[in-house]
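Cross-check.
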Amino acid sequence: MDEHVTGQDQADVRVDDEVETNVEEAGAGPDLLEELAAAKAELDAAREALASSERRRALETALAEAGALDVEAGVLLAEASMRREGVDAGEAVAGLRRSRAWLFGAGDAGGVGVGSGVMVERDEAEASDGLSGLAGRASATGDRRSVLAYLRAKRVAG
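Predicted model, tokenized:
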């Protein structure tokens, strides 16, 4: 049985056991017992699907609240973390923020908006940051645009 068993689940198990006992005592044929077993298996599968869906919803909510840029990638990484480390959704998202900062928006990255697909000219302030400023920003944020801006500036500088 799952470690997250609720009172309702326990009541369902008791009812299932009582039904099976009553069916067996009534001398029901093997067909009815097979149908009962199949119905129990379906119920267990439905419960597992519901629990999985609720876990995913909790992860998606936590990732969206944390400002994740790619919620789907975050869900996959957080689910792996939850299985591996046995943590809840909030702890998994906090771990992702620490270990995979690139997955979350960096407020000082500058440039175009995420996923806009439009190239625009950079601010004069960013252009005057110099090579070391661009390198620091690229290193701190891990943002692809920052890294590319640094590499572009490095190539132009010589």
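Helices lie at 7-25, 30-66, 71-85, 89-99, 124-127, 130-141, 144-157. The longest helix spans residues 30-66. Passed to J.P. for a second look.
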